[in-house]
Amino acid sequence: MSKKNTLLLFVLTLAAFGIINTEMGVVGILPYIADHFHISVSKAGRLVSLFALTVSIAGPTMPLLFSGINRKKAMLVVLGIFVVSNIVSIVTANFTVAIIARIVPAIFHPIYFSAALTMAANSVHKKDASKAISKVFIGVSAGMVLGVPIASFLASTISFQASMAFFAIVNAIVFIATWALFPSIPVKEKLSYGAQLRVLKKPIVWLSIIAVLLFNSAIFGVYSYLAEYLKTVTHISGNIISFILVLFGGANMIGNIVGGKLLAKKPIKTVFIFPFALGVVYLLLFFIGQFTWPMAIMTLVWGIFAGIGANINQYWISSAAPEAPDFANGLFLSSVNLGTTIGTAVGGAFISVLGTQYVVLVGILSLVVSIIFVWLRNYMNRPITQLAK
Fold first, then answer.
1. Cβ(366)–Cβ(218) under 8 Å?
2. Region label for 285, one of left (φ > 0), alpha (ψ between -120 and 50) or beta (otherwise)
3. CA–CA separation, 185 vs 366, rounded Å?
4. pTM, 2 dp
C-alpha cells in the first residue's frame, strides 16, 4: 500500500473514531446531561436511542441519495454537520434543541460511513479490501472504548460542555485533514437509484441482512448489559468493571485486525465458524460468570470475537450486493443498528423475567437462528460462494 493510501486510511480511521465518539460518548455522560437539562436519566437516554434509531432508518436511504455526489464533498458536509451539531449541544439550554442536534447528524451519519468503507475497499487490491476496511473499524472500536471514558472524565472533572467540545474538536480536526489531504473523488459511474434498489430483489441480500441483524443482536444484546452482569453475577467493584470494559474494547480492536485477515483468506469458512465459536464463548460465560479471573479472560476472548463480527457483518452484506457498494454499506449500517436495538430490548426482557445471568441466552439464541440464514445464503448462492472462497 502506498504512503498516500496509508495516510488516507488513517484519516478515515480517525473520522470513524470522531463520529462514534459523538454517537457513543454520550453514554458515559448521561447523568451529567440529566443534571444540566434538569431531566431524568431515562429521558436523557433518548439522546442515545433516538440517534441509533435515526441511523437505522437513514442507513439505506441517505447513501442512496448521495451516491452520485463527489465523495470528498459529501464527507466534508457530514463532518461539518457533526461539528456544528456538537457546538449547538454546548450552547443550548433547551433539551428539545439538544435532541434535534443529535437527530440531524444521525441522519447524515450513514453517508460518511458508507463512503468511507467504499473508499477503504477501493484504496487497495480487491483481495486486501477486508484488511483495509478492518482499519476503519479500529476507529469504531477506539471510539467505543476510549470515547466513553474520556467523555465521562471530562464531564466529571470540568463540565458536560467540555465533553461535547471534545467531540467537536475531533470532528473539526478530521474535517481539516479531509479538506487538506483528500483529493477530489468524483463518482466515475453513477448508478441510477433504480439500479441500486434492484439489489433488494435478490434473496441473497435479504438473507445477508437477517444474518447480520442476528449477529449484532447476539453481540450487543449481551454486551449492553456487561457492566450489570459483572456487578450482579461476578460481584466485582466498579473500578474492576471499568478495567474489564476497557479490556473488551482493546480486544475488539485486535479482533478488527484478525477479522480483516481471516476474511481476506477464507471468508466463507470464517463466517460459518463464527456463530459456533461465539456460542461456545457464551456458554462458558454462563457457567464461569461468577469467577472474576476466568470471567476477565473470557471477556478478552469475547471482545476479539466481537471485533471479528463487525468485519463479518460488513463483508456479508457488501459481498451480497457488489454492484451497489454505497447502498450495500447503508444496508449494513441499518442492519447492525436494528440488530443492536432488538438485541438490547430482548436482553432487557430476559433479565426482567429470568435474571441477569440468563442474558447470555439472547446471544446464544440469536446465533442459533443466524446459522440457518448463513446456511441458506450459502446453499442458494453456491456459485457466488465459490468465488468468495
1. yes
2. alpha
3. 40
4. 0.78
Across 318-356, b (16+ Cβ under 10 Å) vs e yields bbbbeebbbbbbbbbbbbbbbbbbbbbebbbebbeeeeb
Exposure string over 132-167, b if 16+ CB within 10 A, otherwise e? bbbbbbbbbbbbbbbbbebbbebbeeeebebbbbbb
Contact 160, 44 (CB under 8 A): no
Question: Residue 275's Cα: distance from chain center in Å?
Answer: 18
Q: Of 368, 190, 360, nearest to 281 (Cα)?
A: 360
> What are the pLDDT digits (tens) for 218-244?
998 888 788 778 888 888 876 787 788
Q: Grid coordinates in use for 175? A: 474535517
% the chain with pLDDT above 90: 24
Rounded CA gap, 294 and 290, in Å? Answer: 9
- Greatest distance between any 2 Cα atoms in the chain: 59
Please state, in angstroms and rounded to a whole number, the distance separating the CA atoms of residues 207 and 145: 31
Q: Which three cell numbers stand for residue 272?
A: 460459518
Residue 50's nearest CA partner among 107, 90, 114 is 107
